[in-house]
Amino acid sequence: MTSAPHGGKLVQIKQASRNSGGFGGYKKDQRLQVSREVVMTVANIANGVFSPVEGFMGENDYLNIIEQDRLENDVPWTIPLLLTTSRTKPQTGNLLLVDENDVPVAIMQPEGTFKISKREYAKKVYGTEDEAHPGVAKIYGAPETAIAGRLEVAVKPDYGEFADLTLMPRETRVLFAEKGWRTIVAFQTRNAPHINHEYLQKTALAMVDGLFINPVLGRKKAGDFRDEVILSSYQALTAGYYPRNSVVMSALHYEMQYAGPKEAIMHAIMRKNFGCTHICIGRDHAGIGSYYGPYAAQEIFKEFPDLGITPFFFREFYYCKKCAGIASEKTCPHGEEDKLSFSGTKLRQMFSEGKVPPKEFMRPEVAQAILKFEHPFVE
Amino acid sequence: LRRRLGKSVSDYVTYVLREVVAMHEMKEVPEPFTSTDLVEIKKRLQALGYL
Question: Beta strand pairing status for A310-313 and A317-320?
């Protein structure tokens, strides 16, 4: 038995190919162009990743989340799913959402508009009003009107080269059941795996039936590993170092919000919908810069006794030269000078020179998988 | 502890009720797909090497 879907219902919105007749005949004022991020959100709503939500949120859900970290019906939820628009004219009839190239994305039944307070949103969701925070900058740059509505029909998402490595919640739920897994731990990542990640995953795996590695693909910042590099490096790791029947990897197409603790709860909700019973929450999960305390994303789970997915909390792991093994601050008394670590800059420099990090830091197979790419990093 | 349980009796009762709701949610709920869907899903999982 996998985890029950969040809110008790796995949402499945009707889906059709973009060339089907249902998306034709919409006039200019019945079409709304949306961002790449909204396109991903639509696909995730339609496929149940954001269950029990069936569309873009209305004012009651929005206000409840901002004030209580819950939907109007008291189901835990920490980041609103909003469709902001610069349109002010009331919408009558269905609305066709189109992407930046005017290609249909979904048909939505509008349920009204409302204003958001950007400062309040920033403060409550990101815990800061600092425009240097990417999430804050994004909400400050967005229109202040949000349009609510249920998705009626969505275009089947096209994940291109990643399609074969992308499973939807209904697929993972069947997969876990077929494998006979009753307890599954999710591991969220946006990086190529280091030894310390492997250690953390295997520690978690020792306590459950299966491990679900769920790398996040989407917009990244300069210097991050490219999506295809992350997937390829994980394939190298799992092929060489994990029992085949204990691990599943699938990509999640989702725009990181860098909302630290609030986003950690959303990450747990999404993985619950994939059927996971547990999730790994490490140091500064979903954080950026120094906006959040190192373990704030663990502390917040205490406020949600009804989340329905159990977090495994971990300290930061590293290779300690004196211990001659993987350690953490809980298990190792040695100082910073004994930790084997590489800054992102140093790592990028090594790979650009064709060098590999020591095996105590990264598996050679993983390093080789990265080196196969001429440009492994986002430029 | 105060943050977790709130400051009032009402907060405490809410916290406990949410725990009770969560226990009920653990019960199995029907999956939203038919037996035909199930066959299709398994076919795709097999084709991709997941099964």
Answer: unpaired
